[in-house]
Amino acid sequence: MQDMNTDIVKKVQESLEKMRKSKGKLPEFLEIMAQEVPDVFLHHLETKDYAMHYTEIPDKFKVLICLAVSAALGLEKMVESFAISAKKHEIPHEEVVHAILLARFVKSSSVFGESMTAMKLLNKDEYHK
After folding, report:
1. For residue 34, how far is the Cα from the chain centroid?
2. Which of 16, 55, 72, 102 makes the best surface tag, with the fewest CB within 10 Å?
3. Which residue, among 39, 36, 37, 41, has the nearest Cα to 16 in the 3D structure?
4. Residue 99 maps to which CATH number?
5. Whether 69 contacts 103, CB under 8 Å
């Protein structure tokens, strides 16, 4: 059991070092996850590796999709992380802005769409009496 824990800690440290060299500053949640639940941290990296590398979608589009989803969900740290990734992938500024605008459109459309029940309940004729 001790050897397994040592192996996990070693893998975590190697992964963190590699990520710091590649990305510079890491998101705080990754640092905490690595420290508090190293096995979950390693699983998270495996899942990310699968999602980001075992697909036919070009890297540029994966970064823009992740950026737009992060923006739509309001995940500031993830938006920052994918903006840095966009810069490293040399994605033009205009394309990053367009991805964010698409996220804004989808989010605002979803708010309107989700409010349809309320709008139906507030029948226009009844509401203005």
Report:
1. 18
2. 55
3. 41
4. 1.20.1290.10
5. yes
For residues 73 and 17, membership in a common domain is answered with no
Tell me how far apart the alpha carbons of residues 78 and 75 are, in angstroms, rounded to a whole number: 5
Rg (CA), the chain: 21
Domains in the chain: how many in total? 2
User: Which of 65, 56, 108, 60 is closest to 87 using CA atoms?
Assistant: 60
C-alpha distances in Å from residue 77, one per residue of 39, 61, 82, 89: 22, 19, 9, 18
Show Cβ contacts of residue 104 under 8 Å, excluding neighbours closer than 6 positions. 71, 72
Tens-of-pLDDT digits for all 129 residues of the chain? 355 688 998 999 999 999 888 877 788 888 999 999 999 999 999 998 888 888 889 999 999 999 999 999 999 988 988 999 999 999 999 999 999 999 999 998 888 888 888 878 886 665 555
